[in-house]
Write the structure tokens for this entry.
Amino acid sequence: MNARRGMFRLWVIFSVLFAIGVGTASYNRILNEFKSTVTGIPVDCGKALGAEGIDYAVIGDSCWYPMEKFRHFYPEYQSLSDRVLTEKPWAKAGIPLEKHHHPWKMVFNTVVLAFGIPLVILALGFGLGWAFAGFREEKDAC
């Protein structure tokens, strides 16, 4: 029996299961992050203008407008740049700026977690195998 081959196969199985678990646990959080990116600018739903589902989408406690619809319904923001426009309504909606959505950063962090931990375990396993191999007695090559 080849213990090294068997341990590697176990590592592959557990790594795949770990990656699936991390992906499943992170799926909804990442999906919500992409939804808020796509939908754009938050407004308090009590002050929302237009029709729900057509002009804005309700996500959580806020109503989210695409940039062009937001500018149409809220002309007082017409003179602002897109960057400033994305910051002011966030503050009015009570969402801290550090909560700004970064969905691809979240995807990257999830991938690093899902594959980084198993790779570290693989490296430790090979290192330990190499170290313990040094304690074996050498066979005579007669």
Helices lie at 3-39, 67-73, 82-92, 103-133.
